[in-house]
Amino acid sequence: MTLDQTHVVVVDIEATCWKGNKTPEGEQSEIIEVGVCLLDTVSGISTAKRSLLVKPTRSTVSHFCTKLTSITPEMVADGMSFADACAILENEYATKSRLWVSWGNYDHKMFISQCADFGVPYPFSNSHMNIKEVFAKVEELLKQVGMARALKMFELQLEGTHHRGHDDAWNISRIMATLIARRGRAFLDDFLAKGEQ
Asked: CB–CB of 169/10 below 8 Å?
């Protein structure tokens, strides 16, 4: 399938987590929010920002997780299923025919793992860009940096709440749009030309 060359889907997930990465016995980290927006890579305009809250089925939202993300157990108690969230991505964001982008590879790995565990069809194309890695390469940094640091480097204010999926996806799209505006589309076109990542 030929990818849409003018739009990318920016995704950021939040997952159940515990202090010191100490997962309680019988529980397993899982996605509780899928933040998503669309970036028009020609105009640099981001749209369709959305938070998909997902009801956990194999873990609980810890106090630590709430402090980090602001997501409470009550917020996800009436959340959608993971399968429904994936269906929305595919049907409303055309994720099968677009490059999708995340800050780091964690989101990518979590989707692959959770889709396999839950028997849910993978909702994305096979083209995923780790924009954190690309940002470091294009900006010629010695090491990769966090999203908040990248915003500061571009003199952009963080909008919304850090560690909320929809706000982080929005901020990542702003970084990518600024990267394209400053450096041109060459890095993106080269990536798309390579096909599956």
From this structure: yes
Give the total residue count for the chain: 197
Query: CA neighbours within 13 Å on the CB side: how many for 30?
Result: 22
**Tokens encoding 161:** 């709440």
Helix (H) or strand (E) holding 64: helix 63-69
Q: Which residue(s) pair with 36 in the sheet?
A: 11, 50
Residues of the chain above pLDDT 70, percent: 98
Of 65-69, 133-137, 185-189, the one with minimum mean pLDDT is 185-189
Task: Reduce the DSSP state of residue 66 to 3 states and report it.
Answer: helix
Distance (Å, whole) CA 89 – CA 64 = 28
Calculate ∠ Cα 29-87-75, nearest 5°. Answer: 50
What the block records as the tokens of 193 is: 């030309």
Q: 52 to each of 24, 102, 109, 182, how far by Cα in Å?
A: 25, 16, 18, 31
Residue range 171-183: mean pLDDT, rounded: 96
Report the 10 Å Cβ neighbour count for 9.
26
Quote the DSSP letter at residue 25: T
At 15-48, the pLDDT tens digits run 999 999 899 999 999 999 999 999 999 999 999 9
**pLDDT at position 138 over 60:** yes
The amino acid that residue 39 corresponds to is L
